[in-house]
UniProtKB/TrEMBL annotation:
It comes from Limisphaera ngatamarikiensis. InterPro entries: DUF72, UPF0759_sf. This is DUF72 domain-containing protein. Pfam families: DUF72. It comes from the Bacteria.
Protein backbone atom coordinates (compact mmCIF):
# COMPACT_ATOMS: atom_id res chain seq x y z
CA UNK A 1 0.00 0.00 0.00
CA UNK A 2 1.26 3.48 -0.85
CA UNK A 3 1.19 6.07 1.89
CA UNK A 4 0.91 9.85 1.55
CA UNK A 5 4.02 11.30 0.03
CA UNK A 6 5.19 7.94 -1.34
CA UNK A 7 6.62 8.81 -4.78
CA UNK A 8 5.29 5.54 -6.20
CA UNK A 9 1.75 6.28 -5.08
CA UNK A 10 0.73 8.36 -8.07
CA UNK A 11 -0.92 11.11 -6.02
CA UNK A 12 -0.01 13.55 -3.32
CA UNK A 13 -1.10 13.63 0.31
CA UNK A 14 -4.73 13.18 1.26
CA UNK A 15 -7.02 15.93 0.07
CA UNK A 16 -4.62 17.56 -2.39
CA UNK A 17 -6.35 16.23 -5.49
CA UNK A 18 -3.16 16.45 -7.56
CA UNK A 19 -2.79 13.44 -9.85
CA UNK A 20 0.32 12.72 -11.89
CA UNK A 21 0.70 10.23 -14.72
CA UNK A 22 1.80 9.62 -18.29
CA UNK A 23 0.32 9.85 -21.76
CA UNK A 24 0.28 6.10 -22.23
CA UNK A 25 1.39 3.29 -19.94
CA UNK A 26 5.10 3.77 -20.75
CA UNK A 27 5.85 0.10 -20.10
CA UNK A 28 3.83 -2.73 -18.59
CA UNK A 29 0.36 -2.03 -17.25
CA UNK A 30 1.10 -4.01 -14.08
CA UNK A 31 4.09 -1.83 -13.22
CA UNK A 32 2.22 1.34 -14.15
CA UNK A 33 -0.77 0.49 -11.96
CA UNK A 34 1.64 -0.02 -9.05
CA UNK A 35 3.30 3.37 -9.45
CA UNK A 36 0.57 5.72 -10.65
CA UNK A 37 -3.10 6.44 -10.07
CA UNK A 38 -4.04 7.99 -13.41
CA UNK A 39 -3.24 7.46 -17.10
CA UNK A 40 -4.18 9.20 -20.33
CA UNK A 41 -4.92 6.49 -22.92
CA UNK A 42 -3.37 7.32 -26.30
CA UNK A 43 -4.48 4.30 -28.31
CA UNK A 44 -8.02 5.66 -28.52
CA UNK A 45 -6.75 8.57 -30.62
CA UNK A 46 -5.29 6.37 -33.37
CA UNK A 47 -7.76 3.48 -33.29
CA UNK A 48 -10.05 2.77 -30.31
CA UNK A 49 -9.60 -0.70 -28.83
CA UNK A 50 -12.45 -3.16 -28.56
CA UNK A 51 -14.83 -2.41 -25.71
CA UNK A 52 -13.97 -5.82 -24.24
CA UNK A 53 -10.28 -4.87 -24.21
CA UNK A 54 -10.99 -1.59 -22.45
CA UNK A 55 -13.07 -3.51 -19.91
CA UNK A 56 -10.12 -5.79 -19.19
CA UNK A 57 -7.89 -2.76 -18.58
CA UNK A 58 -10.44 -1.43 -16.11
CA UNK A 59 -10.70 -4.78 -14.34
CA UNK A 60 -6.90 -5.07 -14.04
CA UNK A 61 -6.50 -1.60 -12.52
CA UNK A 62 -6.87 -0.77 -8.83
CA UNK A 63 -10.34 0.39 -7.81
CA UNK A 64 -9.15 3.96 -7.23
CA UNK A 65 -7.26 4.17 -10.53
CA UNK A 66 -8.49 6.81 -13.01
CA UNK A 67 -8.49 6.51 -16.78
CA UNK A 68 -8.69 9.47 -19.10
CA UNK A 69 -8.55 9.06 -22.88
CA UNK A 70 -7.99 10.96 -26.11
CA UNK A 71 -10.93 11.20 -28.48
CA UNK A 72 -10.55 9.39 -31.80
CA UNK A 73 -8.66 11.40 -34.39
CA UNK A 74 -11.58 11.18 -36.84
CA UNK A 75 -13.24 13.88 -34.72
CA UNK A 76 -10.38 16.37 -34.53
CA UNK A 77 -7.90 15.67 -37.33
CA UNK A 78 -8.51 15.71 -41.07
CA UNK A 79 -7.51 12.69 -43.14
CA UNK A 80 -4.32 14.31 -44.43
CA UNK A 81 -2.83 14.14 -40.94
CA UNK A 82 0.19 11.78 -40.72
CA UNK A 83 -1.44 10.18 -37.67
CA UNK A 84 -3.90 8.44 -40.01
CA UNK A 85 -1.10 6.03 -40.91
CA UNK A 86 -2.04 4.16 -37.74
CA UNK A 87 -5.74 4.02 -38.57
CA UNK A 88 -7.01 0.46 -39.13
CA UNK A 89 -10.68 1.18 -39.80
CA UNK A 90 -11.36 1.18 -43.53
CA UNK A 91 -12.95 4.39 -44.75
CA UNK A 92 -14.09 5.32 -48.24
CA UNK A 93 -12.83 8.42 -50.02
CA UNK A 94 -16.15 10.09 -49.23
CA UNK A 95 -15.79 9.17 -45.55
CA UNK A 96 -12.27 10.58 -45.38
CA UNK A 97 -13.50 13.94 -46.63
CA UNK A 98 -15.95 14.04 -43.72
CA UNK A 99 -13.28 13.44 -41.06
CA UNK A 100 -11.89 15.93 -38.60
CA UNK A 101 -12.25 19.52 -37.44
CA UNK A 102 -15.51 18.73 -35.60
CA UNK A 103 -17.46 18.55 -38.86
CA UNK A 104 -21.17 17.83 -38.58
CA UNK A 105 -20.95 14.48 -40.39
CA UNK A 106 -21.91 10.87 -39.87
CA UNK A 107 -18.24 9.89 -39.64
CA UNK A 108 -17.55 12.33 -36.79
CA UNK A 109 -20.67 11.20 -34.95
CA UNK A 110 -19.65 7.56 -35.42
CA UNK A 111 -16.17 8.37 -34.06
CA UNK A 112 -17.65 9.96 -30.95
CA UNK A 113 -19.88 6.95 -30.29
CA UNK A 114 -16.85 4.64 -30.49
CA UNK A 115 -14.92 6.94 -28.15
CA UNK A 116 -17.85 7.09 -25.75
CA UNK A 117 -18.24 3.31 -25.65
CA UNK A 118 -14.58 2.91 -24.67
CA UNK A 119 -14.87 5.70 -22.10
CA UNK A 120 -17.78 3.90 -20.46
CA UNK A 121 -15.89 0.59 -20.41
CA UNK A 122 -12.94 2.33 -18.73
CA UNK A 123 -15.29 4.17 -16.36
CA UNK A 124 -13.43 7.29 -17.45
CA UNK A 125 -14.34 10.71 -16.14
CA UNK A 126 -12.59 12.81 -18.79
CA UNK A 127 -12.08 12.75 -22.54
CA UNK A 128 -9.42 14.88 -24.19
CA UNK A 129 -10.01 16.49 -27.58
CA UNK A 130 -6.55 17.38 -28.85
CA UNK A 131 -6.66 19.61 -31.90
CA UNK A 132 -3.99 19.93 -34.57
CA UNK A 133 -2.23 23.27 -35.00
CA UNK A 134 -3.92 23.66 -38.37
CA UNK A 135 -7.29 23.89 -36.58
CA UNK A 136 -7.01 27.67 -36.30
CA UNK A 137 -9.54 30.11 -34.77
CA UNK A 138 -11.38 30.92 -38.00
CA UNK A 139 -15.09 31.76 -37.79
CA UNK A 140 -15.89 28.43 -39.48
CA UNK A 141 -13.84 26.40 -36.99
CA UNK A 142 -15.37 28.23 -34.04
CA UNK A 143 -18.82 27.52 -35.48
CA UNK A 144 -18.00 23.82 -35.88
CA UNK A 145 -16.61 23.62 -32.35
CA UNK A 146 -19.74 25.22 -30.91
CA UNK A 147 -22.13 23.00 -32.84
CA UNK A 148 -20.25 19.82 -31.91
CA UNK A 149 -20.16 20.41 -28.17
CA UNK A 150 -23.62 21.96 -27.96
CA UNK A 151 -25.12 18.76 -29.40
CA UNK A 152 -22.77 16.26 -27.78
CA UNK A 153 -23.99 13.36 -25.66
CA UNK A 154 -21.42 13.72 -22.87
CA UNK A 155 -22.93 11.13 -20.54
CA UNK A 156 -21.56 13.01 -17.53
CA UNK A 157 -18.01 13.19 -18.90
CA UNK A 158 -15.76 16.22 -18.48
CA UNK A 159 -14.73 17.24 -22.00
CA UNK A 160 -11.18 18.55 -22.11
CA UNK A 161 -10.09 20.70 -25.06
CA UNK A 162 -6.46 21.23 -26.08
CA UNK A 163 -6.27 23.94 -28.76
CA UNK A 164 -2.90 24.38 -30.37
CA UNK A 165 -1.60 27.17 -32.52
CA UNK A 166 -2.69 30.80 -32.46
CA UNK A 167 -5.86 30.68 -30.34
CA UNK A 168 -6.19 33.94 -28.34
CA UNK A 169 -6.47 33.26 -24.59
CA UNK A 170 -9.64 35.32 -24.25
CA UNK A 171 -11.34 33.29 -26.99
CA UNK A 172 -10.22 30.01 -25.44
CA UNK A 173 -11.53 31.08 -22.05
CA UNK A 174 -14.89 32.26 -23.38
CA UNK A 175 -15.45 29.14 -25.48
CA UNK A 176 -14.56 26.85 -22.58
CA UNK A 177 -16.96 28.67 -20.28
CA UNK A 178 -19.74 28.75 -22.89
CA UNK A 179 -19.36 25.08 -23.89
CA UNK A 180 -18.45 23.76 -20.42
CA UNK A 181 -14.98 22.57 -21.40
CA UNK A 182 -11.80 22.15 -19.41
CA UNK A 183 -8.75 23.76 -20.99
CA UNK A 184 -5.79 21.41 -21.53
CA UNK A 185 -2.43 23.13 -21.78
CA UNK A 186 1.29 22.80 -21.20
CA UNK A 187 1.84 24.86 -18.03
CA UNK A 188 5.20 26.03 -19.34
CA UNK A 189 3.38 27.78 -22.20
CA UNK A 190 0.39 29.33 -20.47
CA UNK A 191 -1.90 28.77 -17.48
CA UNK A 192 -5.03 26.65 -17.59
CA UNK A 193 -7.80 29.08 -18.50
CA UNK A 194 -10.93 27.10 -17.62
CA UNK A 195 -12.12 24.04 -15.73
CA UNK A 196 -12.70 23.07 -12.13
CA UNK A 197 -9.75 20.67 -12.30
CA UNK A 198 -6.86 22.01 -14.45
CA UNK A 199 -5.54 19.58 -17.04
CA UNK A 200 -1.84 19.87 -17.82
CA UNK A 201 0.07 18.04 -20.58
CA UNK A 202 3.88 18.26 -20.53
CA UNK A 203 5.16 18.01 -24.12
CA UNK A 204 8.73 19.07 -23.35
CA UNK A 205 10.34 22.36 -24.26
CA UNK A 206 12.41 20.78 -27.04
CA UNK A 207 9.84 18.21 -28.16
CA UNK A 208 9.20 14.55 -27.42
CA UNK A 209 12.91 13.80 -26.86
CA UNK A 210 13.08 16.35 -24.04
CA UNK A 211 14.12 15.18 -20.57
CA UNK A 212 12.99 17.49 -17.79
CA UNK A 213 15.71 18.93 -15.61
CA UNK A 214 15.47 19.14 -11.82
CA UNK A 215 15.04 22.90 -12.16
CA UNK A 216 12.14 22.45 -14.60
CA UNK A 217 10.40 20.00 -12.28
CA UNK A 218 10.78 22.43 -9.39
CA UNK A 219 9.27 25.16 -11.56
CA UNK A 220 6.46 22.80 -12.60
CA UNK A 221 5.64 22.20 -8.95
CA UNK A 222 5.37 25.95 -8.44
CA UNK A 223 3.17 26.44 -11.49
CA UNK A 224 0.63 23.67 -10.88
CA UNK A 225 0.34 24.27 -7.14
CA UNK A 226 -1.08 21.74 -4.69
CA UNK A 227 -4.09 20.80 -6.79
CA UNK A 228 -6.63 19.72 -7.62
CA UNK A 229 -5.13 19.14 -11.06
CA UNK A 230 -4.11 16.45 -13.51
CA UNK A 231 -0.51 16.45 -14.73
CA UNK A 232 0.49 14.19 -17.63
CA UNK A 233 4.00 13.80 -19.02
CA UNK A 234 4.27 13.20 -22.76
CA UNK A 235 7.95 12.82 -23.61
CA UNK A 236 10.44 10.03 -24.22
CA UNK A 237 11.36 9.79 -20.51
CA UNK A 238 7.81 10.40 -19.32
CA UNK A 239 7.72 7.61 -16.75
CA UNK A 240 11.02 8.56 -15.17
CA UNK A 241 10.19 12.27 -15.19
CA UNK A 242 6.73 11.70 -13.71
CA UNK A 243 8.21 9.67 -10.85
CA UNK A 244 10.87 12.32 -10.27
CA UNK A 245 8.12 14.93 -10.11
CA UNK A 246 6.09 12.84 -7.69
CA UNK A 247 9.13 12.55 -5.45
CA UNK A 248 9.10 16.33 -5.09
CA UNK A 249 5.51 16.32 -3.90
Amino acid sequence: MHGPGDPTGGSVGAGSGLKVGCCGFAGSQKDYFRKFRVVEIQQTFYEPPRVETAGKWRAAAPADFEFTLKAWQLITHTADSPTYRRLRTELSEADLIECGHFQDTAVVRFAWQRTLEVARALQARRVLFQCPARFTPTPENVRRLRRFFENLDRSGLDCVWEPRGSWPPDLVRSLCEELHLTHAVDPFRQPCLAGAVPYYRLHGGTGYSHRFTDEELDELKRRVGPGPAHVFFNNVTMKEDALRFLARL
